[in-house]
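Quick note —
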Amino acid sequence: MKSVDLAGGAAVPVMLVILGIELAHAKMESDRTVIGLATFAKLVLTALVAFPLAAIMQLQGVARAVCIIEASMPTAVMASIVAVEFDARPKLVTGIVFASTVFSVITLTVLLGILQ
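Predicted structure written out below.
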């Protein structure tokens, strides 16, 4: 059982190393528009969709805030790993993961201020 725990503990660091390798090889100049649109959609549009959905589901308080914040989180590193595995434009996906993570500092701060 200890070997399974050891392998499981290595999963996140290995994913981050793969993300770093992809970022080192990424040339984001050609895909700036796509990366910008995807980042905007993930960080802003999902929040705008989450507000009315939370109202429709009659969520209030912490449950409402969690729903909206979770919808507005940046693209997960796992998307980059899947893109590498299936050769589905991994450099583009890695750029989106990177950009959405960087800009989420701003959008999540604003969102937390709105939800207070």
